């Protein structure tokens, strides 16, 4: 069977060579038999897909540069496999684990490759319509989502879209409901099942457990789509992300009916495996949306979670609250530390547990709020809960959660931080980096984020939010995100709304379509005193902005989902604005217009932009007098930092101290003028796969303390001028596999304390001038490069080598937030 896959063009041929090597080594050694068998199975899935992808590129007459970057990786993989056959038995005891880890890393890299290539393919600015390439898209549609090894490859949690999320923590008491739900959904006659329960009862958790169940995954394979709906979703938005998730070019829909026709064709073409579509959190006023997703497709099933019951749409499985035994177990897991001897009387614990009425959310939040508290606080909470007849009522459940929130009165900043989470849309990952910027200004926390992340951990430990770390990142918090239950978000908004409208510390405005507040329609000149303002609009918003007067706003959060976005004129009146967070929650970067308006904000210190297209010279056409930090994520930045005809970059950004650029794939080169930013302390460029080099002018950043060039796979060397960065204390070149050596001039970096280089070439060379780095304290790398550093340990007395054994694969292949 393997022989039939060998051949093809370009990358397909290279993969074929790797497959031959795997088959050959399997016959010669039993040492890595199981790993090699899985690797062979993965290659058998990947190779035909790659060949079809190359065929599609050829037909469309386009050059797939992204695929070409993988050739060297595969060639290294072939060399690694062949090396496995040369290991002698007397070395096996200590070399086998090392090579096993590398083989596993190779396997993961191949699978991750398929994800990133699909995402890059869909983001091309091509003019072909869906119908023109439909047949070819059908051929590349599945990649390795259903590997023969039996493993379903899930998208990383950082991706927005339709990956199958895993249940957080260890759910209690859902084994029986899971079995019953499987029986209901998997019945031949069942096409649509409603999973219904009151809020906070565990509907979404049960749905996630269902999707991750081994039997369910064996049936549906890669055709499980988990859709988290907003309060008022649009058909176009859901269908667009379905296409994106499956790697197809997102079509332009003329109407809702057109979107429905496209999704029906899409679902009919992704067989032959059965299809499961999960629609999570459907509200009663969105029930009619279900009509648009019911099609006559064999083995196509829909699972809906909702607080309501929709009898006309199908059978209903009602999830009951936990019984007392499971309730007490879940409560005690939150209320008591492992191994802790409880001094709380059993009767007090029992009455509090019963007061929570079996609702998992209430049990976890109330339990954690009492953890470590004295008996008197427990008795007070018991008395409060006894006044609630039943928290089956929504208002009573909020009351129960409110009492737990009151426990934060002794730590007011944590309570305020909890309320701030409502600034971001429901059911979206909240980037920790955005919260760091906000809280640094609102509460005067440190700019490095240590205090802010500590607050995130505190909220998570109290079950008021879930902290999601998609990848260990010891040099920043780009991979830290927060989520929280929609009920907890409603609680935060409820807390905010207790104040009078004009006097609120936070103004959280959510506009669905053009349904704006009365004061907006009447164009009343309301003057708000808020320090934090959040405005969320969707793709249907088309109204003219009203004239909001908010001179006290220090942090502004703008959330939208559209192809173009005009910055509101009223921003110019926010004289005290210090931090601006703009996030496009759509699929592709949106055109951001009226950008020069931002230069009128005389106190603006931090800008964070996500998934927007910044106009050329956007940051240099006018002066940003006090701007200290720019963060760009998934943006089209083109010439945004290039000096304009009016100003050079040092005049436009005289006080800029930090630039963060992440997943900006149109960044090919940094403008040489960047070396004029004399105040710059931190330059972080990560996951910019088309960045080819750093300008030699970077040596002009004489105050730079941190340089991070991570997962920029096209960069082949660091410029010699790096030796001018005399204040540099941290250098990170992780996952830059083409960098083979450090420049001789590194000897000039006498303040260098830390170097990170995980995932670098095993042929990496160190210059002898490394011996001049007397203050170097830590090098973090993987096993392949640790040996390069080992000879220097005896000469650099402060040096410690830390081997990172977890990040053995090429993590730059993991997709970003598309």
UniProtKB/TrEMBL annotation:
UniProt cross-references to InterPro entries, sorted A to Z: Apaf_helical (IPR042197), LRR_dom_sf (IPR032675), MLKL-like_MCAfunc (IPR059179), NB-ARC (IPR002182), P-loop_NTPase (IPR027417), Powdery_mildew-R_dom (IPR008808), WH-like_DNA-bd_sf (IPR036388)
One family name in Pfam for this protein: NB-ARC
Membership in a protein family: Belongs to the disease resistance NB-LRR family.
Domain RPW8: 1-152
Species name: Linum trigynum
Swiss-Prot/TrEMBL keywords: Plant defense, Repeat
Molecular function terms, GO-annotated: ADP binding
GO biological process, one term: defense response
Identification of the protein by name: RPW8 domain-containing protein
């Amino acid at each position: 069977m393997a022989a039939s896959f060998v051949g093809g063009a370009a990358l397909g041929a290279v993969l074929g060579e790797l497959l031959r090597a795997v088959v050959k080594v399997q016959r010669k050694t039993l040492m890595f038999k199981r790993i090699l068998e899985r690797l062979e199975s993965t290659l058998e899935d990947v190779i035909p897909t790659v060949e079809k992808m190359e065929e599609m590129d050829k037909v469309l007459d386009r050059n797939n540069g992204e695929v070409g970057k993988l050739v060297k990786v595969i060639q290294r993989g072939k060399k690694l496999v062949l090396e496995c056959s040369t290991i002698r038995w007397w070395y096996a005891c200590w070399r086998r684990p090392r090579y096993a880890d590398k083989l596993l890393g190779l396997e993961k890299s191949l699978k991750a490759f398929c994800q990133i290539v699909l995402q890059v393919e869909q983001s091309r600015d091509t003019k072909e319509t869906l119908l023109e390439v439909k047949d070819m898209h059908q051929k590349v549609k599945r990649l390795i989502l259903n590997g023969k090894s039996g493993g379903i490859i899930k998208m990383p949690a950082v991706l927005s879209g339709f990956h199958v999320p895993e249940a957080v923590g260890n759910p209690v008491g859902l084994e029986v409901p899971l079995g019953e739900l499987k029986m209901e959904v998997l019945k031949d006659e069942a096409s649509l099942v409603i999973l219904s329960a009151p809020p906070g009862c565990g509907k979404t958790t049960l749905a996630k457990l269902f999707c991750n169940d081994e039997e369910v995954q064996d049936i549906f394979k890669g055709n499980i789509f988990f859709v988290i709906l907003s309060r008022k979703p649009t058909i176009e938005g859901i269908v667009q992300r379905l296409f994106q998730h499956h790697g197809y070019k997102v079509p332009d829909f003329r109407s809702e009916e057109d979107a429905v026709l496209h999704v029906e064709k899409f679902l009919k073409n992704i067989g032959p495996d059965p299809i499961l579509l999960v629609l999570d959190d459907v509200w009663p006023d969105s029930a009619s949306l279900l009509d648009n997703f019911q099609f006559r497709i064999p083995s196509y099933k829909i699972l809906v979670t909702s607080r309501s019951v929709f009898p006309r749409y199908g059978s209903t499985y009602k999830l009951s609250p936990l019984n007392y035994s499971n309730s007490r177990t879940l409560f005690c897991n939150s209320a008591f530390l492992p191994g802790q001897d409880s001094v709380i009387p059993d009767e007090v614990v029992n009455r509090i547990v019963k007061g929570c009425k079996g609702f998992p959310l209430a049990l976890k939040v109330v339990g954690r709020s009492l953890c470590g508290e004295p008996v008197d606080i427990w008795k007070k909470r018991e008395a409060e809960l006894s006044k609630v007849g039943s928290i089956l009522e929504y208002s009573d459940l909020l009351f129960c959660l409110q009492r737990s929130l009151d426990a934060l009165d002794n730590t007011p900043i944590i309570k305020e931080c909890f309320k701030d989470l409502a600034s971001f849309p429901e059911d979206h990952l909240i980037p920790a980096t955005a919260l760091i910027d906000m809280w640094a200004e609102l509460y005067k926390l440190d700019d490095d984020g240590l205090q802010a992340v500590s607050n995130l951990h505190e909220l998570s430990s109290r079950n008021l939010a879930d902290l999601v770390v998609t990848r260990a990142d010891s040099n920043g918090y780009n991979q830290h995100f927060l989520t929280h239950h929609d009920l907890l978000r409603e609680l935060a908004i409820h807390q905010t709304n207790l104040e009078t409208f004009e006097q609120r510390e936070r103004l959280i405005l959510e506009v669905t379509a053009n349904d704006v507040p009365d004061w907006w329609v009447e164009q009343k000149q309301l003057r708000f005193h808020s320090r934090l303002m959040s405005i969320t609009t969707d793709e249907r918003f088309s109204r003219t902005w009203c004239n909001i007067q908010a001179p006290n706003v220090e942090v502004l959060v703008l959330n939208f989902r559209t192809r173009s976005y005009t910055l509101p004129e009223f921003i110019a009146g926010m004289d005290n604005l210090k931090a601006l967070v703009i996030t496009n929650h759509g699929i592709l970067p949106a055109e951001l217009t009226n950008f020069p308006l931002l230069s009128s904000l005389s106190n603006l210190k931090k800008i964070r932009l996500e998934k927007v297209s910044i106009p050329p010279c956007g940051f240099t056409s006018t002066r940003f007098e006090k701007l200290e930090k720019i963060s760009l994520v998934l943006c089209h930045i083109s010439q945004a930092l290039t000096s304009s005809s009016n100003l050079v970059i040092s005049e436009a950004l005289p006080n800029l101290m930090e630039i963060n650029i992440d997943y900006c794939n149109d960044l090919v080169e940094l403008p040489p003028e960047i070396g004029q930013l004399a105040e710059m302390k931190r330059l972080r460029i990560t996951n910019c796969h088309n960045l080819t080099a750093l300008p030699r002018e970077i040596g002009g950043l004489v105050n730079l303390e941190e340089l991070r060039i991570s997962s920029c796979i096209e960069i082949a060397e660091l410029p010699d001028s790096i030796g001018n960065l005399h204040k540099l204390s941290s250098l990170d070149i992780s996952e830059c596999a083409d960098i083979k050596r450090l420049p001789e001039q590194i000897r000039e970096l006498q303040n260098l304390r830390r170097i990170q280089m995980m995932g670098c070439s095993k042929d990496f060379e160190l210059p002898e001038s490394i011996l001049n780095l007397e203050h170097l304290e830590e090098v973090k790398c993987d096993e392949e490069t640790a040996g390069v550093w080992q000879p220097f340990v005896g000469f650099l007395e402060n040096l410690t080598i830390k081997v990172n054994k977890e990040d053995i694969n090429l993590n730059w292949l993991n997709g970003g937030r598309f």
